[in-house]
Structures are given as structure tokens and as C-alpha cells.
Amino acid sequence: MNSRYLIFSILFSFSAASVQAGPENVGWPGDYTSAFTLYFSGDRTANDKQMIRIYANDTAIAGVKADGKLPFGSVLVGELYAVKLDEQEQPVISSLGRKIPENLSAVVVMERGKDFDAGYAKHLTTGDWEFAVFSAAGQKLDKDITACRTCHHPLVDKEFVFSYEHLGSGG
User: Fold this and answer.
1) Using alpha carbons only, what angle is made at residue 109 by residues 103 and 115, rounded to the nearest 5 degrees?
2) pLDDT at position 22, please?
């Protein structure tokens, strides 16, 4: 009887671990600046003191071009830059009418995978996208990704991606 309980416990632990939600599902995307396509560079809507540059892997670009969908294996990488601020802590605007990036503050990664929504409450589901935040040097940061999920959740018709219309446009 003890051996049956032990086997059941081991099997249950293994199956539960294989479908855990969380940023641990997302790894550092390696040399994304040369392996991925830069498809958007501009002001960040969620924070007026940041700019963002967004890259997509070939899987994401091909999916959008084929049928408008981002399949499992799609990876999007956002470089978040703090912008130059004036004495009143407001963004400095260049003569081109653009904010001026000052330093890379974080790298955010979205990856779509089977069952990545498993374990999240309905209001935090994002079409099986998972999120992780890294330092500029590639170290995973211990950040609560609830805000990411909350903001992306309503974007069902855009594959849960704010920059969806820019994907496949060539940058």
C-alpha cells in the first residue's frame, strides 16, 4: 500500500509541475537583436517616461502573415528605455517631436505556449501568453507579472498584443 501511495504521489507531482503557470516558462531570448525582427520603436503607452523597441521571432511574424494568428512558440521582446527628463521630471522632446531614450532599464519577454494560462484566474488569462522581466544584462528579475496580464487580457481581438497592427509590417 505504501509503494502505491508513493508512486501516485510521484506521478501527481510530475504532472502538476508540467503545467505550472508563471514567468519560469519564459527564458532569456538570447541574441534577439540579430535573430528577431525589430517591428516597433516608439513611446510606451503605459508609461510616458519610457520608450519601447519591440522584436518578434520568425514564428510570430510568419503566423501573422499566414493567418493573422500568433502560434505557440511566438516570442515578443520589448526593450524598455527610460527617457531623458527635464528639471520638472517631464520627458525632453527632440526637434523631431520624439522622446529621447537615455538608458535600457529592462527587457520584457512574452512567449506563447500550450497551457501557459493554466492556473491563472479567468480575468488574468491572455491566450496562453506568459510574461517575464529581465535586466538589461539578461538576469531574470523577480517581478509580479499580474499588471502585464491585467493590461493584455482585454486584447482578445489583437492576439493579446498592444502592437499587433505593427507585426508583419516590416518595422
Assistant:
1) 165
2) 81
Give the residues of the chain that fall short of pLDDT 70.
Answer: 1-21, 170-171
Q: What is the pTM of this model?
A: 0.85
CATH class of 19-166: alpha beta
Q: Is residue 24 a contact partner of residue 45, using CB atoms and an 8 Å limit?
A: no
Q: What is each CA distance from 100 to 40, 46, 87, in whole angstroms?
A: 16, 17, 15
Which amino acid does the sequence have at 5? Answer: Y
The upper half-sphere exposure of residue 150, i.e. CA atoms within 13 Å in the direction of its Cβ, equals: 5
User: Helix, strand, or coil here: 7?
Assistant: helix
Residue 55 CB contacts under 8 Å (≥ 6 apart), including other chains? 32, 33, 36, 37, 38, 39, 76, 77, 78, 79
- Domain locations along the chain: 19-166
E strand segments, the chain: 37-43, 50-56, 75-83, 101-112, 129-134
What's the distance, CA 139 to chain centroid? 15
* DSSP helix/strand/coil, 60: helix
Q: Chain-centre distance of CA 156, in angstroms?
A: 15
